[in-house]
Amino acid sequence: MGAVPRRAERLRKVARKLTEQYGLPWERPIEAEIDAYTWPKQWVLSWQDGPTEGQVRRAAAKLDKEALAGVGFRREYSDLAYAVAAIRFLQEQEPENAFQAHVGVYDARRVLGAMKSPDPSDARERYMAERLVAAAEGRSAAFGDGDAICHQATEKGLSVLLRGEDGPELSPVEVLTERYAQGRASALWRYRLIPMTALEAFAAVQADANAAPEHVAVALSLVPSLHVELDAAAEALRERSTAGSR
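The chain above was modelled as a monomer; its predicted structure follows.
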């Protein structure tokens, strides 16, 4: 294939249009540049976070297919994106593996590769991700970007990320889980953010003769929902009993 006329100009135009199309911030645009890590030298479109590689490939092809012949695509990730991926990876693991919580940088990259946008989904996740990034600062990273963040999440878990003074408000069940969870329940909360059931949390306060007044008040706030849960459970048992007697 011969040289593409005005290729540099055309590729940079494609990069600008894609940056606008995906609403990327001006300080982190899609860029067209010569890749210094390939031989022979190759043009590449690179960007951080934002859309997936597949999305950019398809959108770019519609803009200037000729100029894009042989061009590489490279999506890189910010520390915040790695933190989001580590948090989600741990939360999505099966509860049966409560005591085997581990997230590596390659796990995080697999999660990121499938995400259309690695931005935090809400204020709570953003708070956790920002705290995880801050906690990982200064740690060695043997496996490149994101490695220190994943090691921090593996060692410390997720529940610790919610304990800041300016952190998001915990639900009543989460408050009691933070105080009373032990054994497997503690591991599920620490690494998966899976709280105790309302009944388990209430029973834990009931069994604690020295429960703090604030924990007693939280437990009492669960009573209405406990009535609903118990009524539903009782009805399910009645249906099973009726079905078994037929």
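Residues 235 and 241 are 10 Å apart (CA to CA).
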